[in-house]
Design goal:
With about 120 residues, the chain is an all-beta fold. It has strands spanning about 5, 10, 20-25, 35-40, 45-50, 60, 70-75, 80-85, 90-100, 105-110, 115. The strands form 2 sheets. Strands 2, 4, 5, 6, 9, 10 and 11 form a 7-stranded mixed β-sheet that branches. Strands 1-3-8-7 form a 4-stranded antiparallel β-sheet, with no helix packed on it.
Amino acid sequence: QVQLVESGGGLAQPGGSRRLSCAAAGFTFSNVAMSWARQRPGKGLEWLCGITSDGSDAAYADSVKGRFRISRANVGNTVYLQMDSLAPEDTAVYYCYYKRGGSAPAEYWGQGTQVTVSS
């Protein structure tokens, strides 16, 4: 059974940093690209970034480019989101997810972790 469990959320000060983790289980982690998304209060889901299966390439939304960095450790089946220069508008629930392709496509999401940026 696929499991994605985010951790690392909490309260951060404006200008501060936070590192989120997403522990994966139930599938061959090293074979899939992983992504992070967020949902701000009263808003829809927003894709933030994605990383290739081997970690060699990543892409970012303009809203977080230069401030957030995605990485992964395939040995530990974990994907990370390093968030720097946080602003109050980064307050959101953050999710990791992946999309399975092939003959039975599906999306798998974690339960999310809340990040609140406030002084």
